[in-house]
Amino acid sequence: MNPPSRVIYLSIGAVAALVILPFLIDFYYLQLVIQIFIFVVISSSWNVLASAGQISLGHAAFFGLGAYGAAFFYKYLALGPVLSIFLGSVISLICAYFIGAVCLRIRGVYFAIATLAVAEAVRVVALMTPDLTGGAMGFGVDPLFEENRIWAYYLALAIMVLSLLVFYVVDRSSLQLAFLAIKENEDAADTLGVNVSKYKNSAFLLSTYFVGAMGGFYALNTTYIDPHSVFSAHISILSQIMPIFGGLYTFSGPIIGGVVITLLSEIFRVTTGKMGPLFFGLILIVTIIYFPSGLVGFWKRLFSRKEKKEFSPVS
Amino acid sequence: MTEFLQVIINGLLMGGVYVIAAVGLTLVFGVMRIINFAHGEFIMIGGYVSYWLFTLLGADPILSLFLAIVILWIFGVGFHLGLIKKVLNAPRLNQIVLTFSVSIVVQTAALLLFWKAEYANVNVWYGSIAVKLGPFSIGIARFGGFACALLLTGLLYLWLKKTDTGRALRAIAENKEAAKLMGVNVEWLYLLTVGISASLAGVAGVVSSVIMYTIPTLGALMILKAFTVVILGGLGSVEGAVAGGLVLGLAESLVSHYVPNGIGWSEGVSFAVLVVILIIKPTGFFGKEATLH
After folding, report:
1. CB distance B278–A289 less than 8 Å?
2. pLDDT digits (tens, 9 = 90+) for A223-239
3. Which pTM value belongs to this model?
4. Domain limits at A165?
5. Residue A186 maps to which CATH number?
6. What's the gap in Å between the CA of B206 and the closest CA on chain A?
7. Structural domain count of chain A
8. Distance from CA of B229 to the nearest CA of A (A)
9. What is the predicted ipTM?
10. Which residue pairs from B75-81 have beta carbons closer than 8 angstroms and sit at least 24 positions apart in sequence?
11. Residue A202 in domain
């Protein structure tokens, strides 16, 4: 474990570099980096819930709810982009509160299936209420900040930094210990006086809030949303691939996974078109079977051979 | 009244497909405690076996049924030996994510292989013939699919209850270690279980290809319905899958007939049923365990 001061210097340096970055790169790469910000947030968010032992197969639901929420406020109430995205994330949070209250009563595999069903149900509702959502056609919104890409970039950066800050604090707090206890054994944690349902709900809200916020940002940034894109199963799939590939239950793993997978995703899109999901699926299979602790675990194993037996959270 | 009963009949006949689609899923869960998210993809492969045999060779789906059972058996055995076997003792997260990613790979491969997401129908000559039974009409193909589904499920049930192998499987489901000590060959029976499960999925695919259609994303559609069925009936319970499948078929049929714009909404019925059941009775109506981790 790095001493905290090193981590702080490192992150300040990284943020400073990211602040200067938009002046050095062109439009295409700017969009790509924004894409990376979005997926890093989704990746780290999924990891928070996983660290409490809960597997979500439907994170796209909250991305879409945030997207529709923000787009409604922006288009129909003509609120500013930042306020719209914030209110959109609140909508997603309120929905997550009720969905979590219901779904978290059930455990393990049942919870995973329930999240899959919720994501599908939300998509069907969005498709079947065309008066509100535009149905399968979706609807368009005006570009945010009068198409000033650099401001859009900074907004995405701000959301990402804020979310990572929150996740970092959570990672070092007693909350994380409660999550770990629940992940290892829910009944034992309960017996030892951990308020299991409270902590599971906290993990769920933490894990979905910033996904909703990024959904809102996505909606205003792409200026067009439809159920197919924002409630896409692809988002739910990527949300698992990224943290697992990077290294589950660590702070840096999901970030690394988010960056690498988004870049790979773009390379696949440019070179092979539709074959992307095939490669992702294969990456995930190989990772799960041979490197269950991801890139971070692989790295650690490579450079700390001397340390005898390291505690490995997965496998 | 006649109309209502006709809707009920249609629902039950459709429910038969859901039964056979779900029974393999519940079998694997019951014996191995693995939720196979790739089960829907086996159904889809079965659908394409039927479609290609019919389109290229003009083979009747009844014939394809046997071939689908063999082909899917091979797929199932490969799936078990290559992947499932390696995560049997891994954390649940690894198991779920593994089968989920297999489903993505197979689905994408199917989309690329058949190149487009088009509905593929198997238009057999008896496909649109219906028998008049008083005021009701019953499609032959639908009835055939229904009968085939319930027959195979019944055979599976009897096999589990009456034969030595079936008893051994149930012993593993109860307590794997104890069964091992009693000389049960767990390795071989796991292989058998996944093979049978995949074969049953293949049958579901062949039936779907005749009475509905097949499409590379058929698996994604069917897996959620199969989950609904097994959760309605209780994960791991064969008789529960029968009840669950028929209930889901009925519910969908009623919604699509009586709710305005019901065809679109009926897609959501399974999810609504799923969430409601998970809230009020997460272990389903036939599930024995109080909680599953």
Report:
1. no
2. 888 888 888 878 888 89
3. 0.84
4. 4-303
5. 1.10.3470
6. 25
7. 1
8. 12
9. 0.79
10. B75/B42, B75/B45, B75/B198, B76/B42, B76/B194, B76/B195, B76/B196, B76/B197, B76/B198, B76/B199, B77/B191, B77/B194, B77/B195, B77/B198, B79/B38, B79/B194, B79/B198, B80/B190, B80/B191, B80/B194, B80/B195, B81/B191
11. yes
